[in-house]
Automatic annotation (TrEMBL):
A single cellular component GO annotation: cytosol
Gene transcribed to yield this protein: ubiK
Pathway assigned to this chain's UniProt record: Cofactor biosynthesis; ubiquinone biosynthesis
Family affiliation: Belongs to the UbiK family.
Function description: Required for efficient ubiquinone (coenzyme Q) biosynthesis. UbiK is probably an accessory factor of Ubi enzymes and facilitates ubiquinone biosynthesis by acting as an assembly factor, a targeting factor, or both.
Species this protein is from: Pseudomonas putida
Name under which the protein is recorded: Ubiquinone biosynthesis accessory factor UbiK
């Protein structure tokens, strides 16, 4: 994974090369090349999609809820096994 500064420097260098050409390129060509440049840079940052992030948040919330339920059951069982400690 690239450090943020290295990523921005590389992106800046590539963008400079893209826009410094002697011949004027059509806007659509520039947009397509810049989009490819950004996608290449973002892939090096190991980012996740919004959908993947949201699905992992759902899994995490479910896991936390189950863990809290298990902790409550363990506390209840410990209280049954050792009633003097619960008082």
């Amino acid at each position: 994974m690239l450090a943020p500064k290295a990523f921005l420097d590389a992106l800046s260098d590539q963008a400079s090369r893209l826009f410094s050409g002697d011949t004027a390129q059509p806007r659509s060509e520039l947009e397509s090349q810049f989009k490819a440049l950004l996608q290449s840079g973002f892939s090096k940052l190991e980012l996740v999609s919004r959908e993947e992030f949201d699905s992992q948040m759902v899994v995490l919330a479910r896991t936390r809820a189950r863990l809290e339920a298990l902790e409550a059951k363990v506390e209840e069982m410990e209280a049954r096994l050792n009633p003097a400690a619960a008082e």
